[in-house]
Amino acid sequence: MKTGRVDKAYMQLVSDFPLVPLRDKSEFEEAVKLMKKLAYNRNTLTSGEADYLSVLGDLIARYESRLPQPSSKLEPQEALAYLLEINGLAQSDIVDCVGHKSNLSAFLGGNRSLSKRAAFRLAEYFKVSPALFLARD
User: Which residue in 60, 76, 71, 49 sits closest to 21, CA to CA?
Assistant: First the structure.
């Protein structure tokens, strides 16, 4: 590999958080935190930082693929709670997808269903099928 191709910002990232397989939840959470930070600033990243972000995303995806996947038998509320947990998110992080905090709380508490619009927004956010969040008959 030509070292002239790698910029200093990339090398600093590798020094701070080496690109190696993620082995546990704490490494995964740290990787996600760093990925979010880099993605937030993606328009100002150097090419090396963008390459780092790409590989970090691959490592995160590989770790997530080893996690138990929710069963289609989960209730919509359980599926959303599971997705929040594995992504290290709080309800406040997804309130915009649902519209109002009270709607989200009522849904997670089993007191109401989600609108189709909210289900589609959540599906887009989590990259899953909207059917996961819609009531089953």
Answer: 60
